[in-house]
Amino acid sequence: MNEKHLLDRHSYTNTASNAGSPQRVTVDARQIDRVATWTNAYGNPSYVYHMKDGTTHYLVDDYGAMNGINARLIRVRRRKDMFNV
Q1: Three-class SS of residue 3?
Q2: Under a CB-based contact definition with an 8 Å cutoff, are residues 73 and 37 in contact?
Q3: Helical H runs in 1-85?
Q4: pLDDT tens for residues 2-34?
Q5: Over the stretch 48-85, which tens digit does the pLDDT of each residue have?
Q6: What are the angstrom distances between the C-alpha of 5 and each of 9, 29, 48, 70?
Q7: Residue 32 carries which DSSP code?
Q8: Which of 6, 48, 66, 77 could serve as 82's disulfide partner, Cβ 3.0–4.6 Å?
Q9: Is the full-model pTM beyond 0.70?
């Protein structure tokens, strides 16, 4: 069984808050509809995976978030806009 499409990430699921610790999730890269990204003033990227089933995964300061993903990438100017694309 080929499982190259399964990705392990740490994310905040279905929330725009980054309070507390992110949870480890396994994401099927084939189910990602689009990805929004924002970079803070220090140059650290954050990403939101918008899944085909409506779930969102918020990844904070994750430089490898796009590894293994072939989905539309949308760059936004404000952090809050990542959740509304």
Answers
A1: coil
A2: yes
A3: none
A4: 577 899 999 999 999 988 999 999 999 999 999
A5: 999 999 999 999 988 889 988 989 999 999 999 999 99
A6: 13, 5, 18, 10
A7: E
A8: 48
A9: yes
